[in-house]
Design brief:
This protein has 168 residues and is α+β, with helices and mostly antiparallel strands. The protein is built from two helices and six strands. A hairpin with a 2-residue loop joins strand 1 and strand 2.
Length: 168
């Protein structure tokens, strides 16, 4: 995130401390967690190039979200080096109508079964194609390193004849 603090024609800052207040809405920070939900987000952007000297997070939850633990209104941190963030994880219950927009987190166990089924089906299909002769295996013909012998006289006459025709 970048922005300008002064016009290009303004004089440079001379050791002037400036505090910025960024207000923004976040999407995709809610994760389904069994029967409930969980706020799970890194609010300090760990992939930034520079440090964050003083960090303050003011958290306002919509009344339809009821936290299962104690939640503070303001969270602070200081001296966050590049690569370190400020992760906030809060279990929540949704008391509103309909379904909220969430991000689904799949576990390795939930992904492993569908992935192994797709892999097995692909291998079986390839074996079936090879068996029916629709695809030659990669190793077929690899041991046959012989090339067909071409009669050079016949080949040179044909190419020489065509060369003469092209030139003139």
């Amino acid at each position: 995130m970048r922005w300008r603090s002064r016009l290009r024609t303004d004089p440079p800052f001379a050791n002037t401390a400036i505090t910025y207040a960024l207000e923004y809405d976040l999407l995709g920070v809610l994760v389904t967690n069994g029967d409930g939900y969980q706020l799970d987000h890194d609010f300090a952007f760990p992939d930034r190039p520079g440090p964050v000297y003083d960090f303050e997070l003011s958290l306002d939850l919509d009344p339809v979200w009821q936290p299962s633990t104690t939640v503070r209104r303001v969270y602070t941190a200081s001296g966050l080096r590049p690569g370190s963030g400020f992760v906030l994880t809060i279990p929540l219950r949704y008391m509103g109508a309909g379904l909220p927009m969430t991000r689904t987190v799949r576990t390795l166990r939930g992904i492993a079964l569908p992935a192994s089924i797709v892999l097995a089906a692909t291998v079986l299909a390839m074996l079936g194609f090879v068996r029916r002769g629709l695809i030659r295996p990669l190793y077929a013909g690899a041991h046959r390193g012989r090339r067909q012998r071409v009669d050079r006289r016949e080949h040179s006459e044909v190419s020489g004849g065509s060369r003469r025709r092209c030139l003139g």
